[in-house]
Amino acid sequence: MPGKQAKTLSTDHIDDLLFFAERSRHPLRNRLIVLLSVKAGLRAAEIAKLSWDMVLDPSGAVGGTLAVQDQIAKKRSGRTIPIHADLRQALVKARQLCNGRGPVVRSERGGALTPMTIVVWFNRAYKQLGFEGCSSHSGRRTFITRAARAVHKAGGSLRDVQLLAGHRSIQTTQRYIDGDSDTQRKLIAMI
């Protein structure tokens, strides 16, 4: 897909992807992969390198935020992301199965997955679901687009979306945001 942006996902697409993850060999791990992408906007490399010390609070419980550290973020753009309720629920379940150390998303042998493994997992899932033009970046684009559309309801601005995405430039964030033809039609009708 050189030169093209990954497509964003609809609510139905996300539901299908979560259903696919549920029916897989590692349902909780794969649900975490999907939710870290669509509910936290993490890149494949960030999902692979996320460790429990970035998720847990000082008492060892799942905290209220993901602290994406500079060493795992692209261009060392670490950031803090509030944890969505669905993602929190999956993290709490995953925490019960481990000692709270090491990678959040683990291979069958217990070690970290590679970023390429995350990319391949998404590619296989999208292919089996028949989703054209989607990639491991689709969840991230969906997260950023949804955040941009809803930020005014939370009393925020595009700067807040930029910070959640970990972009240095607001222009980069703007390139991620998908337009909505229904909204454009409504807007034209209002003019």
From TrEMBL:
InterPro entries according to UniProt: DNA_brk_join_enz, Integrase-like_cat_sf, Integrase_catalytic, Tyrosine_recombinase_XerCD
Source organism of the structure: Bradyrhizobium rifense
Domain Tyr recombinase: 4-189
UniProt superkingdom: Bacteria
Lineage, top ranks: Bacteria, Pseudomonadati, Pseudomonadota, Alphaproteobacteria, Hyphomicrobiales
Any one Gene Ontology BP term: DNA recombination
Keyword Iron-sulfur appears in the UniProt entry: no
Name assigned to this protein: Site-specific integrase
PANTHER family linked: PHAGE INTEGRASE-RELATED, PROPHAGE INTEGRASE INTD-RELATED
Keywords tagged on the record: DNA integration, DNA recombination
Any GO MF annotation of the entry: DNA binding
Pfam families: Phage_integrase
SUPFAM superfamilies linked to this entry: DNA breaking-rejoining enzymes
CDD domains attached to this UniProt entry: DNA_BRE_C
